[in-house]
Amino acid sequence: MRRRKFPVPNTAGRASSRPGETYQRASAVSVVIVTNYSPRCRVCQSPASTFASLLMTDLAATPETSADAPSLALRRGLMLILCLGLALAVTSLMVRILEVNGWSWAEVGALICFILTLPWTVLGFWNASIGFCLVHIAGRLGVDPVAAVNPRLVPKDDARPITTRTAITMTIRHEDPAQVIARLRLMRADLEASGWGRHFHFYLLSDSARPEAAAAEEAAFAAWKATDAHPEELIYRRREQNTGFKAGNVRDFLTRFGCPYDFFLPLDADSLMGARSILRLVRSLQAFPQVGLLQTLVVGMPSGSFFARAFQFGMRQGMRTYTMGSAWWQGDCGPFWGHNALIRLAPFRDHCELPVLPGTPPLGGLILSHDQVEAALLRRAGFEVRVVPEEGESWEENPPALPDFVKRDLRWCQGNMQYFQLLGLPGLKAPSRIQIGLAILMYVGAPAWMGFLVFGLAQAFLPAGPAPYPADLGLTLFAVIMTLSLSPKLLGVLDLLIQRRERQRYGGTLRLVGGALIELVLMTLLAPVIALIETRFMLGLLFGKAVGWDAQQRQGYRVRWGQAAHGLWLPTLFGGLYGLGLWIGAPGALPWAAPLLTAYLLSIPLCVLTASPRFGALCHRWGILAIPEEIDASAPVHTLPGAIGPR
Q: Could you give the dihedral angle defined by the CA atoms of residues 435, 440, 442 and 446, in that order, rounded to the nearest 10 degrees?
């Protein structure tokens, strides 16, 4: 009896929504070592250093780079070749497996879906690989990788005067005012201690519609102003209608209050930044007038929720190498993640007003995912958009439970699907257009992956051909896909392991490796569940289903069994039916599909367990999935209300 062909699915998948959060969803390299902004020195002309110069020199002729500098287009072209070459190689391997007995309709469908899942898998592999090489190979050639990927960044010890005015803006809607103002007060105190406090004004921009929420905000803000030595620098503004959502809130500030300021720093309600990070961004934009936006690397705060601990632990490990590699080719067309970035106010106000899309919501009307569009519009206006691929006093909070993660993820999904209408936006730079396309493919990959599973199962019920299943090719493809999928995580962990200081920041090698393994298992189990939920939601978008925009859950809580079952009955049912189908049509594939079936069948108890406050507190007590701030008792995040404190 011949085996029926059944391609083995990749059960690792992705558990994060954006690279920029993972991976967080990428800029270019230079040999510029900024020292008082003098022209860069040449590296020694050995073959190795010459090759490094070729790959790491940013932008063609500018005031900060030599006229013979290789073009940024060279690196972008090389990245395109690497990605296309790898994608074609993997696709050809899949074709060889599927064509053994000719082509059925199920195999054609499986191949199409497989190809649609590849862009982010391939891009993630090369981003992480290039970033890892930049960090650990370029350094041996005497090149600072951070200064290399962002030549528009002043050194950390730069102390030139602040000569500009910056508005620090926090947008809120139905948030806890005590938590919000505590963050702003901490940032203000830090800036006052730096001696540059008079150059920064703070704006709390409220879109709260509930009267009790608005009253609480006004009272808390008034109490803060009453204790501040310069209350005129603290401004509270509330809109009656949240027209345009967060982007509309910011737009209202820009047009009504923006004129006196050179820069503005947008924050989310859960954001926090230190004075050193803020001042470095300001000095960089003062020094380089061609830069319109400078985005920091944002990391999670310590959390008592096991779900948030695992998510931010894994995201943080891979973030540096991934973003370093993406910065290598994105260069001046870098990302904007919507907050914790310094922006040149006038160009942003004049050139980054979001268009209203034709049609009705959810795919028409106001744009939900504003950040990447604003980055593309700012670059179109001639201003550079760059990222700082290193950690530096820039924090946010992550969802405490799977239901909250899904809620946020689906809002991003809806916004990214609106990008289909922006692909032809006139005047965009090619990298900006590519990033908009990648933002779409980020979510298209979920239904494509589910389609691959369904077509694979359908093939199991079609007549088997005479030729045996090429098991050797199947195993090779499985190994390749797993390697590509896991490389960003593995290289991120390796990046930390080979640096003694980083190992110590995470509490030692055992805690670091143990936490990485726990996070890998958890996210491997969650990825198929999230993909199915995204697929169902995207099908609903075609029939007008949409998500709302309200305050996010910030604090950990207990998810009850009924709540988990209400949100996750479909993955559980799908897992049961899929397993039954395999048992009937292709029982030999059951061992290979075991991780996938486990993920679906355990989705409800996994949701309850990972949100359990008791389980989270136990992990905090034992230092499981602890991030550096949790170990460092001096970290400023410990002074915030409700902080879990150092272990």
A: -170
Beta partners for 126?
A: none
Integer Cα distance of 317 and 320 in angstroms: 7
Strands lying side by side in the sheet with 384-396? 234-238, 200-206, 166-172, 263-267, 341-344, 291-300, 384-396, 272-273
Tell me the residue type at 605: P
- Sequence-separated (6 or more) residues with CB below 8 Å from residue 508: none
Token code pair at residue 110: 């499986």
Inter-residue contact 401 to 553 (CB < 8 Å) = yes
Taking the C-alpha atoms of residue 118 and residue 111, their distance in angstroms, rounded to an integer, is 11
Cβ partners under 8 Å of residue 34, min gap 6: 147, 151, 153, 154, 155
The region, left, alpha or beta by phi > 0 then psi within -120 to 50, assigned to residue 37 is left
Beta bridge partners of 300: 396
Q: Which CA distances in Å does 464 have to 94, 100, 469, 593?
A: 18, 11, 10, 20
- Does the pTM surpass 0.70? The reply is yes
Angle among Cα 80, 86, 89 to the nearest 5 degrees reads 135
Distances (CA, A) of 600 to 38, 366, 540, 541: 58, 35, 21, 23
The answer to whether 624 and 517 are in contact (CB under 8 A) is no
Dump pLDDT digits (tens) for 27-54. Answer: 322 222 222 222 233 233 344 444 444 4
pLDDT digits (tens, 9 = 90+) for 206-246: 999 999 999 999 999 999 999 999 999 999 999 999 899 99
In SS3 terms, 131-198 reads as HHHHHHHHHHHCCCHHHHHCCCCCCCCCCCCCCCCEEEEEEECCCCHHHHHHHHHHHHHHHHHHCCHH
* C-beta atoms surrounding 198 within 10 Å: 12
183 residue type, one letter = R
3-state helix/strand/coil string of 206-226:
ECCCCHHHHHHHHHHHHHHHH
DSSP class of residue 262 equals: S
Determine phi and psi for 610, rounding to 5 degrees. Answer: -70, -20
Token couple for 32? 């510029």
